[in-house]
Specification:
The protein folds into 3 domains: about 240 residues, P-loop containing nucleotide triphosphate hydrolases (Rossmann fold, 3-Layer(aba) Sandwich); about 40 residues, no CATH class; about 220 residues, Nucleotidyltransferase, domain 5, CATH 3.30.420.240. Helices cover about 40% and strands about 15% of the residues. The chain is elongated. The strands form 4 sheets. Strands 5-6-7-4-8-9-3-10 form an 8-stranded mixed beta sheet, sandwiched between helices. Strands 11, 12, 13, 14, 15, 16 and 17 form a 7-stranded mixed beta sheet that branches. Helix 5 packs across helix 6. A hairpin with a 7-residue loop joins strand 11 and strand 12. The protein is built from 21 helices and 19 strands. It has about 550 residues and is an alpha/beta fold.
């Protein structure tokens, strides 16, 4: 290597150890940096000004544990945008009970009140009810009163759960869902404790926009796993998991989840340690072992152990598709190489106001099946959902993965036009369509010369192709090209099982849209109906392919 080449080679920044995943790598490419001094400033505040007030650590400096600094505090305060603001505006931390999150949140609230250089700071501690809100407030208040350098400059009013900082006209205040009645707040920081316990989403949605006028507002959720899959907490949990898995790209959202995996041995001490990063500090191995031995005797106690100690969502529907198996089928897809080939087409219109999907399935000579996707969505709804739920429909449309039709309902004429145009390039042998909401387009496509047949969504029609789709996926015989929209849908799929053990996708139980996977399965059903051997096990069970 020449000297000139060495000079041109890009050097790693001094803080390269904080670049830990694809999101960080992209952030660096976009000009984000890590300010180690800014991160250390927070750690020094904790150890210098805060003292523990309870238990065996009472009176000792609050030295952040490794996970507290490395996975949460360091990234939140160290990563900077190109303009100097904090990179992360939102953090979701999910961790089992007894791992010190209450004192951590209380200490963080004090730092944001007095040391964040935010004039007129308004720091809100939120919880489901007054007692829960009081836990974090008392942690902050107790630590502040134990340190003369803080207590002398703060106005602490425990009866109203308010700590004032007159120097900068700032305050910290605890609020709860059952006592909250105000809007129009100008929050610099929102700290939600035990989000799983929120009775509804009203408080959360209100506080979501409470920091709009701030230059770098911070919203932090710290919670233990819950059980309600329709809750605001599960919504955030699901979003965090998708960001961690690179299904959704969000450079300004920090997901931190400590939990046992679904297939982990729940009695293995190594699994306990994986889920509890404060083990040996705020929680002992002996206490977990005692809880485990008690939980072995009772299904109800096992449920509680899994939720509170292993941080598992106890009533969470198990995702059907394993994403490592899905990604193994992501070989590149060359549409031009498919021109002129026969294919099977399936269409799911869903509703007029949501996403519609179509799958073009091409059998190859090597026994693999190529899945070519098309999606349509009303433009108005796409933009609204991107703002509200951060599902990147607009970005996907820019990448050519989704067609946006004008207005707030799907234009079925556009779908019909696209199908006809694709039929000029590919040989459509058979075309199936979900019967719901499809009368008009079915009639039109039949008039266009297509052999259109209805495809039911019950077990009779979906069970056999669902099993076949699963087999093909596990055998790596599917080729989906790594389509981002389809991968997102694959991560959402939950299935329903009948008494005979048959499976089918369940849109109600699934965490988000799954229409593309539904059309994949329908297309597999079309193909299999033409290629299945006689005497199939499904014939014996009386299950139809269509």
């Amino acid at each position: 290597m020449t000297t000139a080449t060495k000079t041109r080679k890009r050097r790693k920044p001094a803080w390269h150890s904080w670049i830990r995943n694809e999101r960080d790598e992209k952030a660096v490419r976009l000009g984000y940096t890590f300010d180690e001094a800014a991160a250390e400033r927070v750690r020094e505040f904790f150890s210098t000004f805060l003292r523990h007030t309870d238990g065996e650590f009472a009176g000792k400096p609050f030295d952040l544990l490794d996970w507290q600094y490395d996975d949460f505090i360091g990234p939140v305060f160290g990563w900077k945008r190109p303009d100097g603001r904090r990179r992360y505006s939102k953090a979701y931390v999910e961790i089992p009970k007894k791992n010190g999150k209450s004192t951590l949140l209380g200490g963080l609230g004090l730092y944001l009140l007095v040391a964040d250089n935010e004039p007129g700071a308004q720091v809100y501690i939120l919880a489901s009810d007054r007692p829960q809100a009081g836990i974090i407030y008392r942690a902050a208040s107790s630590m502040a009163q134990e340190q003369p350098a803080l207590a002398s400059r703060l106005l602490i009013t425990d009866s109203q759960k308010i700590i004032g900082f007159p120097d900068t006209h700032s305050f910290l205040r605890a609020l709860s869902a059952d006592g909250y009645r105000q809007e129009g707040l100008n929050a610099s920081a929102v700290l939600f404790d035990e989000l799983h316990a929120q009775p509804d989403r009203r408080l959360y949605d209100t506080m979501k926009y409470a920091g709009r006028a701030r230059r770098q507002p911070l919203h932090v959720d710290i919670t233990t796993a819950g059980y309600d899959r329709h809750s605001i907490c599960y919504e955030q949990h699901d979003y965090a998991e998708k960001v961690l898995a690179n299904i959704i790209e969000d450079l300004n959202f920090l997901p931190v989840i400590y939990a046992a995996d679904d297939d982990d041995d729940w009695g293995d001490p190594a699994v306990w340690a994986k889920a509890n990063p404060s083990l040996g500090h705020t929680i002992t191995l002996e206490s977990i072992e005692a809880d485990y031995n008690e939980a072995r005797q009772s299904p109800a106690k096992e449920n509680a152990f899994r939720r509170y100690t292993l941080n598992q969502w106890t009533e969470q529907a198990v995702r059907w598709i394993q994403m490592d198996k899905w990604d193994a089928c992501g070989d590149p897809l060359d549409e031009e190489a498919l021109v002129g080939r026969p294919c099977y087409v399936a269409i799911d219109l869903a509703s007029n106001t949501d996403i519609a999907a179509a799958t073009f399935l091409f059998p190859l000579e090597n026994d693999k099946l190529v899945l070519m996707q098309r999606f349509w969505i009303p433009a108005d709804n796409a933009r609204e959902r991107e703002r509200r739920d951060r599902v990147p429909y607009v970005q996907w449309a820019k990448e050519g993965l989704i067609t946006m039709t004008e207005g707030d309902v799907i234009d079925q004429d556009v779908i019909r036009r696209d199908i006809n145009q694709l039929a000029e390039r590919f040989e459509i042998k058979r075309l199936a369509i979900d019967r719901w909401n499809a009368t008009q387009i079915t009639t039109q496509l039949q008039a266009d010369g297509f052999d259109v047949q209805g495809f039911g969504q019950g077990f009779a029609s979906m069970a056999a192709p669902t099993k076949e789709f699963e087999r093909l996926l596990l055998d790596e015989r599917l080729v989906h090209g790594g389509n981002k929209v389809l991968r997102w849908m694959a991560s959402n799929v939950a299935v329903r099982t009948d008494a005979a053990g048959n499976l089918k996708p369940d849109k109600e139980k699934s965490s988000e849209k799954i229409d593309g996977i539904v059309t994949d399965i329908m297309a597999v059903g079309l193909w299999a109906a033409d290629n299945r051997p006689s005497g199939s096990v499904y014939d014996e069970r009386g299950i139809e392919w269509l």
